From TrEMBL:
This is GNAT family N-acetyltransferase. Belongs to the acetyltransferase family. RimJ subfamily. SUPFAM superfamilies: Acyl-CoA N-acyltransferases (Nat). The keyword Kinase does not apply. Pfam families: Acetyltransf_3. InterPro entries: Acyl_CoA_acyltransferase, GNAT_dom, N-acetyltransferase.
Amino acid sequence: MRNDVPRLQGDRIALEPLVLADSHAIQRLFPHWEIVRYLSHGMQWPYPADGARRLLQEVTFPSVDQGIEWAWSIRLNGKQRPLIGVISVADRPNDNRGFWLGLDWHGQGLMTEACKLATDYWFDVLGFPVMRVPKAMANMPSRRLSEREGMRLIQVGPRNFVSGRMPAGIWETTAAQWRSRVSASPSHRNPHPLASTE
Ligand SMILES: CC(C)(COP(=O)(O)OP(=O)(O)OC[C@H]1O[C@@H](n2cnc3c(N)ncnc32)[C@H](O)[C@@H]1OP(=O)(O)O)[C@@H](O)C(=O)NCCC(=O)NCCS
């Protein structure tokens, strides 16, 4: 039983608590080089045929059940609500948010929208004071996203990724910085927990 992960509604997408049935869509969309190359080297590559199911069952769901991770599928609004990516926030040192988006949906601002929902939840509902995220310096789409969010680069050092060892940055924003940026942005929406999957 997954707990404490609400559904969050955005303008174009919704975040829904990850369930085991999501492993099929994840297995189809996730194992592409353009998606995995700047992810942490801990994952198996080439990706095994049961990789998505095992990740959910052996890593994600236990962390959610322990209350240290909140993980969502990203779904397009509308009747069919297809899964297009995954985002999670976690109570881990210097590693508080992770995400990926299926290739067909890049470049439309959809992850920016997903990040607003998940980050609002991190600060406003979970009450954490700081969010820190690691990312390869070469991962320009992810860096641009953090820059647009007003995150600051606080540290750079080598780190191991699926594509090898390379410089990585730790990006940070505080609750106060996030809220001041949010209040200055009229287009920003707060998260709207609609229903629990409990
Ligand atoms: C990181 C990742 C999610 C970024 O995806 P993305 O589609 O670029 O991110 P967004 O959804 O925020 O979209 C931003 C882009 O959409 C464009 N865009 C179009 N409409 C937009 C809108 N309404 N609002 C904001 N941006 C919009 C922006 O100009 C920007 O394009 P640009 O970077 O070429 O300037 C994606 O590259 C990915 O899944 N990468 C692999 C996994 C990964 O690296 N994860 C992060 C590990 S740290």
